[in-house]
Amino acid sequence: MPAHSKAELLDLSQNEFSKLEALLDTIPPELAAKKCVDQTSIKDVIAHRAYWIRLFMGWYADGQAGKDVSFPADGYTWNQLNDFNERIRASQGHLSWAAARALLRASHAVLIDFLGRLDDDALYAAPMKGAKNHWTTGRWAEAAGASHYRSAAKFVQRCNRELAA
């Protein structure tokens, strides 16, 4: 069930992040770097989640500035999401496990700070400017944060099972 208020969104974001962090604390660097599901590593997914938070922040800033917002990114459509995600993974391939985790922590802190500065109306009263759909800023923030943390945790658990087999 999606959040419908700032308080719910902050609580959900913090809880999902804390659960993910606790799970990541159990993953050694050598396991984090192993390719598993779809030839993607745990490290790849964690760095990717950090990237998407920053991407959301860019969408929001562009919309507020009245700029054309490119979803998901300039030169890509939602139908090309796999290609876009491949590009992200390739650009982050050099990151260590520690660097990927630090990037996620920093991106999460940026998201929480951002959410803390907005009120319920700014988050949920209207569609996000520039989004070209009915999703509110709060819904986009949840997709980039809490929902991505939850799916990352599921990915980590699946990789753990796959690599243990």
From TrEMBL:
InterPro entries: DinB/YfiT-like, DUF1706. This is DfsB family protein.
